[in-house]
Design goal:
Distance between the termini: 61 Å
Largest sheet: none
Helix content: over 70%
Shape: globular
Number of helices: 16
Strand content: under 5%
Number of strands: 0
Order of helices and strands: HHHHHHHHHHHHHHHH
Structural class: mainly alpha
Radius of gyration: 27 Å
Length: 424
């Protein structure tokens, strides 16, 4: 068998495998007692049908064989729908039939990765029917609007923004495209945590709430739980565990954000942020042990979290990021490296993500004039300030029970952060 025959055989097997996978899911979904229009064999043949159309088009150097096969797949799906309409409402199976033909055609044309991805995504979407329907019933209009705004920002607004710096030198640090991209990037991480919260339900466990809260916004979770702890002091131990866990996740999330944008800066921050993460994890372990020893009624109920990518919060983040960017450059020009660290400290009191991203953008725009070690030190100043800010929120709003539970963790993390500022 030469390489050409082996390549075609590989394409055929992939088309057959994707059709088999989708068909297996369809047959399993209908069950043994329900009539189903297409199962494992039919979908496997549809994959081969699409492959054959692509193969004939390649051999004849004409698009018409593939066009005829795709139209034939649509006609077959239409006939199936008409024959099953009284007993099987909906067109999910019929749509899967057309997609399976198209997947087989992609494999036949040589787009193996794309064909495999389409086939697998089709099977995943079909399998997630109950979860997706349950999620749709949970979503509110406000959350749906925020999700649509997120998609519009990614697909429409971002590509239209100019990718160039504005402002007089040396304050030419504002790039509309970069600013929007960073807002989408950070808010997207929070959006993933928000979706996971809605799917799993934060009442599934206080640990899950803390972990996802660290992805969405550990500061927002600190504010929310501090207010609730003041109203329900008996739940302070549970709230404390969730908050310590969210702070720990925040350090690791911040490291991931910086690593995605500036790996050299992340390499300098890896040890300090991992040290803070380990300190937080150790304190979370102690808090978990105390929580397990508490009575079972000391558990909070459901905790709602706002969609992190509604238009208002996203615009506020963009304005905050831009303001920090100009303030950091002004401080650096006026006071040198010490000015940048001071600006990062005060910025970190409000938002650690905006602070870190502004430092990353300054590092990108400096073209070597800003040393990476100074940028890393500035980020650590912002992280230290953010830790103090959360401690102040707990002290002012959380009440004595919550502060008593969190004080060891706050002291431990603050001491580690302060020590790292001297050795960084």
């Amino acid at each position: 068998m030469d390489m050409g025959e082996f390549d075609m055989l590989s394409r055929l097997l992939l088309a057959l495998a994707t059709g088999f996978l989708v068909g297996f899911q369809r047959e399993f979904s209908f069950g043994a007692d329900q009539p189903h229009p297409a199962g494992v064999r039919t979908f496997s043949l549809l994959g081969v049908f699409g492959f054959s159309g692509a193969l004939f088009s390649l051999a004849l150097e004409s698009p018409w064989p593939l066009t005829a096969v795709l139209l034939g797949g649509c006609a077959l799906a239409t006939a199936t729908y008409l024959s099953m309409r009284p007993s099987a409402p909906g067109v999910t199976t019929e749509a899967a039939m057309v997609l399976t033909v198209a997947t087989g055609a992609l494999c036949g044309l040589g787009y193996l990765r794309l064909g495999a991805a389409v086939g697998l995504l089709t099977a995943v979407l079909l399998s997630a029917k109950s979860e997706l329907h349950a999620l749709a019933r949970k979503v509110t209009r406000r959350e749906l609007t925020g999700t649509i705004e997120f998609c519009v920002m990614c697909a429409v607004v971002l590509p239209l923004l100019p990718d160039r710096a504005y402002g007089p030198e040396p304050f030419d640090v504002f790039n509309p495209f970069t600013t929007c991209l960073l807002v989408v990037f950070v808010s997207g991480i929070g959006f993933v945590g928000f979706v996971l919260t809605r799917i799993a339900g934060p009442s599934k466990g206080i640990g899950l709430t803390g972990f996802l809260g660290g992805l969405v916004s550990s500061t927002a979770l600190t504010l929310s739980f501090s207010r609730r702890a003041a109203l329900a002091p008996s739940l302070a131990r549970s709230f404390a565990f969730a908050l310590i866990l969210s702070w720990t996740v925040m350090y690791l999330r911040l490291l991931g954000v910086v690593a995605a944008l500036r790996p050299d800066l992340a390499a300098r921050l890896a040890l300090p942020l991992c040290a803070l993460g380990l300190a937080g994890a150790a304190m979370a372990r102690v808090s978990w042990s105390r929580l397990r020893a508490a009575p079972s009624e000391e558990r909070p109920g459901d905790t709602t979290m706002d969609n992190p990518f509604e238009l208002g919060p996203a615009l506020k983040f963009a304005l905050l990021f831009t303001g920090i960017l100009f303030a950091s450059r002004l401080a650096q020009v006026t006071f040198g490296d010490a000015g940048l660290c001071a600006t990062a400290f005060f910025s970190g009191l409000a938002n650690v993500d905006a602070m870190a991203l502004s430092v990353v953008e300054l590092l990108n725009a400096s073209e070597g004039s800003l040393p990476a070690e100074v940028a890393a030190r500035a980020v650590l100043f912002g992280v230290f300030a953010n830790t103090l800010s959360k401690g102040a929120i707990v002290a002012l709003l959380g009440g004595r029970p919550l502060l008593r539970e969190l004080l060891p963790a706050l002291l431990a993390v603050s001491v580690v952060a302060a020590a790292l500022l001297f050795v960084a």
